[in-house]
Structures are given as structure tokens and as C-alpha cells.
Amino acid sequence: MKKEINNKNKDFLVRLFKEYYFKNLGILSPPTQMHNREFGIMTFGGTVIRHLSFSKIGSLKAFIIQNVPSDVYCSNAYYQFPTFPITEKCWKGADLIFDIDLNDILLPCQKEHTFYICSNCSFVSTDFLKLCHECHNTRILKNTIPCFKCINSLKKETKNLLAFLKKDFGIQEQNLEVSFSGNTGFHVVVFQNNYLLLDSKSRADIVGYLMGKNLSPNSLGVRNNKGGYKIKVPLSGFSYGWRKRIVEKVKMPEGSNDNLYKFIKKIGGYQSFKNELDKIAYEFGLKLDPQVTTDIHRIFRMVGSLNGKSGLTKIVCNDLDKFDPLNDSCFFENDKNVDISINTPIKFHIKGKKYALDKSISTVPVSVAVFLISKRLAHIANYSP
Amino acid sequence: MAKYPFLEEAGTYIRESYFDLDDFNRSEFLHIIERATKRVEFALIQGKVFIDLEKYDIELFTFLISLIIMKYIDEDSAIKKFSLFEARRVEKFLISDLLKEKDLKKNLLISKIFKELFQLNVELEPKKNNLFKMNISDYLQRATQFNEEEWKLINRSVDNGYVYLDGDETVRLIRSEIYKLIYNKIKNMNITQIPEQIKIHAILIKNKLTPPVKYLRNRTDFPPCIKKALELLNKSENLPHSARFMLATFMLSSGRSVEEIVLLFQNAPDFNEKITRYQVEHLAGKKGSQTKYSVPACSKLINENLCYATIDCKGITNPIQFGRKR
To answer: Which chain A residues touch B143 with a CB distance below 8 Å?
Structure first.
């Protein structure tokens, strides 16, 4: 029975995904140096196929329509031989990528719209599950439907990242691409040449910088000294980067060693100063997924492709303020209805309309059905194409 | 230029002077060979930086002869040690030049050195407190080799794609490259016949050298991080401060005596018995603040890129627990 339901869901999604790629082929734009990129797909059966290569966008589109994958990926890296195994690909560089995801931004509202779903029997709980209450399966999926607050927080974090990249890293506006991931986050890609050849360790240092990790009192001239502290204002000053942020935030005197000594004494010594720094670093530090940035062989979701976890499109955002993910990235129809059975009561909005569905069979527009089935929160009940 | 005899111009100078290796056997070169011998002995025997500076041609030939001596000695640990002390000599000159030479012409020379030897663009920023700036990518390529927190980008002055450093920091950043440059110069040197006069001096130095000591090689119960540090030390690699700290505290906690630990560091290219003894005694709580230092936790070692965990490390949070928790 379960298998039959899953097959019906899969058939429905495959049909709709195929239709999407037919109608919206233009959205899939070729990445720069396409012939040097590795492509990958995930099938609806959950298998990842990597090491694919396409030199023209036409052949990629034909491949997608023929195979109808749930997800399409393209490497951030450039290779001489993209189809070879990783160690033989001959790495030529990689775009610098960042992932801002709700999983990394802890918001109090998330509990209200996060679901824990059993991968076996689709049992849904709003409380954290380690083990399915129904079938005792341990493979539990976590799915979130972002609310307005979530989206605004994601946008704010993305804007902070862009500000950091422009101000501190000198990255020009035209070398930045911001896109909605199609699910619960935003992706930022830097196409600037001088960051292309950085290894994984250097990228880890960049992401550490952005996240506010390992900020040391030493860099602000305050050194731990046998339980006390000593001061040596750095020659390179406090005028830039994190040093500037800290100095402005704690209103630290910039002048002499003496003034700084008195200031640290006033706030309670070395440890108090360090605690203060940690607090500020957490406050100003960005909430990013460091693994995405440090991975120089990653296959990253392709712009214009559908996200199999939501049925929404990964789409470039030219105006972040005006962008509404659950409207602008949903390309499925609203004028055709299907019956779905909902696994749990749920409230959300999509394509400008609010929905409050209870645990029963509902007739909903195709766009809603694709969204909820992809999120594993509903099953197709009745659909005749 | 006398301070930097490894620049391309030095090679050109020698080529243009129609100099032949056999010329070193002439008596007028003896004082330069003796000077080069002294320079090598300073590094290999006394463990000191040779800071004496002569005029350009003398410096150039002294440098060349000392490289030939090292080529003849042909012992990797000795070559590493010599390279390290030569690198420190260059460092000293570079730092003082970077601090003093603020006029554009002299600064161009420094920029040229960075550009020619290390393909690194370093510019002086007179408007920004006379700091040196370099591209973030150039900085990261070098700084990520260090494990110390101070080199993390977050602890640097960063603005508009550049990292701002003072002269001292700029030179420290390329420390290992200067070392590699000298090491490779010796290793890649191709000499068919070493002049007799140089050979005689080289043999004298070689006889004075103590062979590298192999310690604790047979022990298999050390955690992989300690094994790795010992392995590097046995190869006379220059261990970072954090690795030396880890090794010394681990050995102290394993019940080894200060004496044994001091001997362990004997292969370090910059080994100085007096300093090492003081430092180990300090860690053991016998000197200074009387605090006995403990072995850094695995989490700290991961952060410092000193962790080489294997399956046997499962369940431990500190290297000292290795082999106890299974």
C-alpha cells in the first residue's frame, strides 16, 4: 500500500516536473565555462548520478527532459576532465559559494512550522523525533515551511553577507549572484577571479571570518598575561574589518596603550573583555553553512532547476527586498485542481494565497499539491492529467 | 642588494663576470671561503644567525660558497638547519628594510623582492599608517600554513579585498617561502666538480657535525598526532609552536623527564638546548608561573590542524587518553 502511494506521488511529480522543464526551459541558463563543469542529478528514487558533462545548454536540457530528475546540480569547480573520478578531474578553480539556510539560523518561530516526518510510513510530528512512533523507523526527515519572519531573517542575513563581501573582501556587485535555493535558503556565488584558486583551507578561513569564529583579544592588542593582561596596540590599527566593528560596538579607545589598559580594567579585565568579544562575534557573525563554502568539489543546485524538496525553482533574485520566494519561485499552475490527503494540519501561503488545511482530503491547486507532496506532507489522492 | 644574494641579478652578475668554479681554488678567494665556512658553522654548530654584512661581491660569493659547502655536506637535516638560519638572516634584513625604507625608490626594491621571489604583490600604503597591503587570496595562500590564531583572517586588518600588515608581519608571512627558496637552491644545485679548497673546508665542518638522533621510533602506542609530530621532528622539520607545545606536554604527562624531552627536540632545525630546557621546565611547572601545563584537548588540536585521528582515537577527547579508553 505504502509503495503504491509513493509510486502515485512519484508519477504525479515526474509528470509535473517534466511539464515544468518543457514550459520553462529558458530559465535554465548555461553556467560560465559550461564545458569545464561537472553536472549531477538526483533521481526520484533518491540515486545521485555525478560526473556528467555537457558542453551546450541544449544537450543538458534534452537530458533533463529525457530523465526528469528531482534535482539538477552543477559544480562550483572548473575541471579539465569533468567526467573523470574526483582525483583525476584536474581541478582548475572553483567559484566561491555561500549557503544561508534556516537550519543555521535559529528562530523561535521555526518550531511552529517544522515537521519531523518518518521516511518509511510518512508519520508526521511537530515535536522532534528520533524514532517513528508508528513504525519505529530511525530515518526521520526534517522539513520546514518558511514563514514571513523566516524569509525576512534569511534576506537580512543575505544582505549582511553581501555587505561583508563588498566592504571587506572588495567583491564587486557585478561578480555576485544571489539566488533563492528553492527551499529554505539563499545561495550567494562569487565569480571574482582572485578568489577562484583558493583551496579548501583558505575558504574555511574566509567562512570563519564571516561567521565571527576565533576572534582573538590579541588582535585588538589585549594579551593574556599570567592571569592579568598587557596591552600592545597593533601597528595595523583598528580601522578595518572586525577590529573596526568591535571598536565601534564597545566604544573602545583607539589611541594609546594607556587608554586601552584603563578601558580593559574598567570592563573587568582580560576574561570579561574576551567574553564581550565572543558575544559581539556571535551577534555580528553570519549564520552560514561552512561545509558548502569549504567544499571545492561540490555540485551545487543549478539556477532554473526545480528543488525536489519543495517543487520550487532555484531562481536568481535581482531585487532581494521585493522577492517573495513562495510566489516568485513557484511556476506551477493555480487554475487546475487535484485531490490530496494531508498528513498533518498545516497553515502556509503560496502564490499569494493563504491555506489552512486539516488532516483530510483536500482539493487544492496543482502548485499547492506539488509543494506539499515534495515536502512529504501530503499524498496524491486523485489526479487525472 | 648585498643582503639578498639570491635575486636574479646575482646570477646575472656572476655570469657577466665570466667567473669559473675553478677560480675558487685561487688564493685570493681563501678569505671568502673562510667567511662562508664561518657562516655555515654559525648555523650548523652554534645555532646562530650570521648577521655580518659585507659589500655586494663578497656577500654574493660567500653565499654561493656556503651553498656549495652545504651541497657537499649533503645531509638533509643539516641543509634544513642551514636554510632555516639563512632564512632568518634574510628576515632580519627584510624587516629592518621594511621598517626604515619608506621612500618610494627603496620600497620598490622590497616590492621587487616579493614579486620576483614569491610572486607576491606587496604595496606600501603611506596613507594608511605606512602599512603593507596584499590581496586577501595571496595572504590566505600563505597564512593558512600557520596554525596560530593570530594568522586567522578574522584577527587581521581587512578592507576592500586587502589585508594590511606591518613590516614584521609581512616578512613572517613569507618565512617558510624564504626557507624553501634556500633549501631548494641547495637541493637543485648541479655541480660536477666541487673546488678543492671548498671541499677541504666542507669536510672539516662535516666532521664536526653530530649525526641526527632517532628517538622513540619503536613506540607504537602514541596517538597519531604525537606520532606525526615525532615523525616530522625526526626529519628535522620545523614544527610550529603549537605542535611543540603538544609534544612536550604529552611527554611530560606520560612521565618522561625534562632531560628526555629536551633530547627529543635535538633534531629541530632551530634547536637551542638552553632555551628548550627552560621551555620544557616552564611547561612542567618548574619555572616561571609554576603552572603545570596540560596536554591540549583533541578539539583544540583539530582547530590547530594537528589532529591526525584514526579509528583508534574513537571516544577520546585528549591525546593522553589514547589507548586507555577502548
So the answer is: 205
Domain that holds residue A187: 2-105+145-208+289-382
Residue B274: CA count within 13 A, CB half-sphere: 2
Q: Say which residue the cell 570592563 belongs to.
A: A267
CA–CA gap between residue B322 and residue B326 (Å, rounded): 8
Residue whose grid cell is 629592518: B96
* CATH value at residue A200: 3.90.920.10
Q: Which residue has the cell 523507523?
A: A137
Is this model's pTM higher than 0.90 or not? no
Residue A164 within a domain: yes
- Secondary structure in 3-state letters for A245-311: HHHHHHCCCCCCHHHHHHHHHHCCCHHHHHHHHHHHHHHHCCCCCHHHHHCCCCEEECCCCECCCCC
Stretch (H or E) spanning A184: none
A321 is catalytic: no
Rounded Cα–Cα distance for residues A203 and A190 (Å):
12
Asked if A258 is an active-site residue, the reply is: no
pLDDT, tens digit, for every residue of B171-223? Answer: 888 888 888 889 999 999 888 888 999 999 999 999 988 766 555 544 567 89
**Residues in chain B within 8 Å Cβ distance of A167:** 159-160
Question: For the CA atoms of A153, A155, A157, A163, what is the dihedral angle to 10 degrees?
Answer: -150
